[in-house]
Write a structure and sequence with these properties.
By secondary structure, the protein is of the alpha/beta class. It has 11 helices and 8 strands. It is globular, with a radius of gyration of 19 Å.
Length: 360
Amino acid sequence: MHAFLDSGVPKNSSQYTTLVMIHGYAWHAAIFRKLLPFAGTYNARIVLLNRRDYPGSRPYSEDEVALLRPIEGDGGERETCDNLWAFMRARALELYDWVATSVNDGKICAFDPTTGTGGVIVAGWSLGTIWITALLANGDLATSVNGVDLRNIIRRAVLYDPPYQVLGYQAKSENPRFDTSLGPDEMLEAFNIWVSGYYAHGQTPEEIEYRAPLKEPSPTLRRLTPQDCNAVTYDEPAKPGGSDYMLVGAGIEYGLFKRLHDAAFYPAHDMWRPTEVRYVWCDRSVSDAWWGAWRLREEMDEAKKMGKHMHPVTIYRIRQANHFAHWDDPQSALDALIGPAGGDKVDQSATRVSPRMSKL
């Protein structure tokens, strides 16, 4: 992983929190750059990571890419599932290694529970959410990474507006990414317009808007200059044969995302017990993200009724925000990502809204 942009140490601060952002599908770390000017306001250092295969980061090797390819024949399905798990376990270890190296280099402060400062908040946006479920699912690797026990460093893991597919849920989708009638370039153009729109959803699944974004505000992509668009997107991993394209297809077909979800939220041994898991959703985002929040609430309610232990999750809603809150309304995004935990965590399904989140 590559630190594409870094806000640096906040002015006049020796004890700050580090927010690490992990990007999604076809949009790389520069899409978070509007967060950086506000870092000092939150006494935070904000680091924007590019995942492997994206600008500045190391490409995957052929052996690594091979783990994403389905295997045919007897035992092929099981071997494919094992390979996909190994692929994401390696990604979790890369993320652990980046954090531990930053701690050893003095770039990350230790967490001080008396002041609530220091430590790391790791947030994965959209497809990047599976780097968070992988982080949580592989806690056995986190106890000693380069001599650092990451359980004492990572204070919060954030799932930021993920589509339901990457959490292993089932629902209806109109995502152009899955429209086989479109060519590769058509698919990416349609996907980027669709995913950056604002949608007027109701309060129930019957009132979800799947395809028609509002005219105002217009889709974020429509308001980007050509220079901005070139600076924040990178298509190659998202095209057929690309690593993200293969990961999404295989992750859904072979149940990888559901397996990561279950290992993250229902661990046999909760290695991340002290770590807050926060789910941030944007209520004018695409239908796939709306369904993600809805399914999570259902799951949390069901787990509570059944007396099933689930790692506690706090849910934060950014009102009037689309999937690109970090670009269109960066302060509201930061309130949700880095703001203090609010309210009683016993009511895990409560939606918590800060004043700035309600401003639009």
